[in-house]
Amino acid sequence: MNLPQDFVSNMKKIFADPQEAADFFASLKEPRHYGIRVNELKVNVPDFAASFADIEPIPWCKQGFYYTGSYPPSKNPLYHAGLYYIQEPSAMSAAAILNVQPGDRVLDLCASPGGKSTQIASALGGSGLLVSNEINYGRMPQLVRNIEMAGVKNAMILCEKPGRLAARFSAYFDKILVDAPCSGEGMFRKDPEAIAAWDKNKSGRLAEIQKDILRDAAKMLTAGGFLAYSTCTFSPIENEDVIDDFLRHHSDFESVCISHADYGVSPASQGLSTSNADAARIWPHRHRGEGHFVALLHRRGDLRSPDIKQLPVPQISNKHFNDFCKKHLPTHINARILEHRDSLYALPPICPDVSGLNIVRLGVLLGVSKKGRFEPSYALAMSLATADFVNAIDLPSDDPRIAAYLGGQTFEMQAPDGYSHFCVAGHPLGFAKILNNRLKGRINGR
Questions:
Q1: Tens of pLDDT along 106-146?
Q2: Is residue 397 helix, strand or coil?
Q3: Which of 377, 374, 382, 392 has its CA nearest to residue 325?
Q4: Which alpha helices (H) appear in 28-137, and where do they start and end?
Q5: Is the pLDDT of residue 37 over 50?
Q6: Predicted local confidence at residue 270, as pLDDT
Q7: Per DSSP, what are the bridge partners of residue 346?
Q8: H helices, E strands: number in the chain
């Protein structure tokens, strides 16, 4: 590993002890750690841990586990059923420290690829509201897919600049997560491209962007709320210095001391110009994870701004969708339904008016009306339980037809003609269409 010389010099200044600096650089040559995080919308942690081999608990996330097996967790059909998310262990720390509770209104401001959003959704347990925002539209498909695979029903996915969101959501959210774009020094061990992209002036440029994002985020936090700021870099310029600058200009905010012992992390006390012991760092030579920084901020007070009015939704009379529901769903979908062009959405219970913003998803995409029929979506399948659909195919995880289904193959299947809910061990993988006892591949909807 050829580290930039300026980076090496910077890190030697951070570590007063030469031996610790040597340990740090040595750790970057060691194998990285792998993690998975349980999705409590689908399964509880004890049941998962009892049935899944080669895992060890991650100290800073109760739902997280180090994965030590040789079989790739992405090959397990339970991953495709959304029971767990594959995530770098340190990346689980920020959402855990934010301590989201059921009923909270939460903003994940820099959300792609969706690891922290799905972690927040799991903590919400289907209540409250999650707004997942990603400014880069090119990163949207991965974010949408991960939220849909997790079976999240109470999320809105937006593609907006923080300033435009701040103008709409003044003092609205109980919790906000800012996983800021950063120089990525903490990813050097796992991502050689992060090393190639580093330059000595990058931290300074990014710090100005981080400060702007944080200022906009602060406008959206209700009094009494909490904001977690995180990066995957070692640079104090992007970490402690950004937080210090923010607190100097926001007298209604205070730094919250993270319980380092409870989370198994280190105090962030080794900065060049600051010593913010309240914040937390994960160091690769001290912890089993890549480099990470988390600061937790609290906005003083106990008053909430007036609620944003709910998104107005006209009553729909979509014959194709109604016919589909009568035939396939034993119970009515308990949500307000929005019809936009040829797509239908089941809105979250809390759905503020976001008219005029760049909307990617509002709740669950139910499916698409086209050519005189309704085609259900992947998102609808993943949001249902096996008992929610009239026709269900439920196979054990070692059944070879699971791999054939995930691969989009056509194969024999004894089942009624029409749509079936295709499941593994009681958990959905998507819809399948059956004709003459032949399953005609996965249905992904739009």
A1: 999 999 999 999 999 999 999 999 999 999 999 999 999 99
A2: coil
A3: 374
A4: 45-51, 77-80, 93-98, 115-124
A5: yes
A6: 53
A7: 337, 364
A8: 15, 23
Specify the range with the lowest mean pLDDT, choosing from 83-97, 300-314, 316-330, 342-356. Answer: 300-314
Residue 303, pLDDT score:
65
Q: Average of pLDDT values for 75-84? A: 97
The yes-or-no answer on residue 159 being catalytic is no
Q: Is 74 exposed, middle or buried (0-12, 13-18, 19+ CB in 10 A)?
A: exposed
**CATH for 319-443?**
3.10.450.720
Every domain of the chain and the residues it spans: 25-299, 319-443
Grade residue 158 by pLDDT with cuts at 50, 70 and 90.
very high
* Catalytic entry in 61, 110, 182, 232: 232
> What integer pLDDT is reported at residue 26 of this predicted model?
97
| Pairing of β 373-376 and β 392-395 | unpaired
Tokens matching residue 211: 């400060």
The H or E element containing residue 22 is: helix 18-27
- What architecture (CATH level 2) is domain 25-299? 3-Layer(aba) Sandwich (3.40)
In this structure, how many other beta carbons lie within 10 angstroms of the beta carbon of residue 418?
A: 14
The count of C-alpha atoms lying within 13 angstroms of the C-alpha of 405, restricted to the half-sphere facing its C-beta, is: 31
Question: DSSP string spanning 361-378?
Answer: EESEEEEEEETTEEEE-H
The model's pLDDT over 245-265, given as tens digits with 9 standing for 90+, comes to 999 999 999 999 999 999 999
Question: pLDDT at residue 171 above 60?
Answer: yes
Among 129, 295, 130, 133, smallest CA distance to 228 is for 295
